[in-house]
Amino acid sequence: MNKSDLIDAIADSAGISKACAGDALNGALSAIKDALKNNESVTLVGFGTFRVGKRAARAGRNPRTGEVIEIKEVKVPKFTAGKALKDAVN
């Protein structure tokens, strides 16, 4: 399923136009993105939790030259599925 398929499903489920469903989806994704930028977590009960994790600095290797390089610490988005979502999948 891609974004346009998701918009179609939202529109059908809620009985609204595809334009309104697209705006709603874009608004929800934007709110999640803004919360993660502010280092906050977003919990959707029954679905899961979006949070910011850290990937520690480490030594890497340039595959072309074999030279050792230092990879900086970075923040990465993480998702943990909720119980209801896990049960729905299984």
From TrEMBL:
Q: Which GO terms describe its biological process?
A: chromosome condensation; DNA replication initiation; DNA-templated transcription
Keywords, comma-separated and alphabetical: DNA condensation, DNA-binding
Keyword Lipid biosynthesis belongs to the record = no
Q: Does the keyword Transferase apply?
A: no
Could you tell me which Pfam families the record lists for this protein?
Bac_DNA_binding
**Residues spanning the signal sequence:** none
UniProt-recorded Gene Ontology molecular function terms: DNA binding; identical protein binding; structural constituent of chromatin
Give any Gene Ontology cellular component: cytosol
State the family it belongs to: Belongs to the bacterial histone-like protein family.
Q: What is its biological role?
A: Histone-like DNA-binding protein which is capable of wrapping DNA to stabilize it, and thus to prevent its denaturation under extreme environmental conditions.
The name this protein goes by in its record: DNA-binding protein HU-beta
- The record lists the organism as Nitrosomonas communis
